[in-house]
Amino acid sequence: MWVKKSLRNARERGDFSIVNSETRKIWDVNSSWWSKNMANGNFPEYSEIIIPLSKELFAQKKLVLDLGTGSGVVAKRIMDNLATKVVGLDLSLIQLQEAIENNLGPSYLQSNSGELPFKSAVFDGVLASMVLEHVGNLQDTVNEIARVLQPEGLFVVVMNHPVFQTPGSGLVGSHNSDSDGTGWKVGDYLIESSEIEEISDGIYVPYEHRTISTYLNTFLEHGFQLQRVLEPSLIDKNEATGNIQGNHAIPRLLVAILEKPLFA
User: Fold this and answer.
1) Would residue 184 count as lying in a domain?
2) Residue 84 — very low, low, confident or very high, per pLDDT cuts 50/70/90?
3) Best exposed site among 2, 63, 77, 185 by fewest CB in 10 Å?
């Protein structure tokens, strides 16, 4: 795919304006597919984990930035807590149009994550849900999040678990006599890479594979204090019938709950 080479070359040169432009085009193209699947509840990680956790963690916050808001579903649900105002930011204008049409309430704004259009210390909460693994310049993004977050502000990161998402990972047949069904093969986890993955027929998504240590060390380098790390898995629908597929023991998501200290 031509865009894969274009993105990789631009990233290697450090030309993140091109990376952002090409990534925006990808999400513009994927917008209707994404919004339709979200509306139909086809991504259970949102209903089972991301939305309930986000509502709980940001319930006492006054102004939250939802970075990479997409169609605005999570931003809207956080605002179910009436005291909380949310700004949803996304690179894709088409995604934001979907958000305005279907999830009114939050304020929506177009921008890339490495140059946030806000004054410093504006928000008391920032959510980056299923975003950072798609961001080319992690350092700039985390630096900007640290800048716009107030002291004692909450920074919540939710991402596809880097082990689960490692290129080359996937379901394999289980040959262990103690288990039935399938297991999970982990690819070259320690090799960081930029990939364009086909996640559905004709739907391509950019992924930046990084190790957990790269993410956590980047957060710490920018002054964040780590409060908790969660590794939730999705409940296998076949588990209740005894036909366990193996996924119930695999971390589907990685959640990092961080705080910006009062005194840097």
Assistant:
1) no
2) very high
3) 2
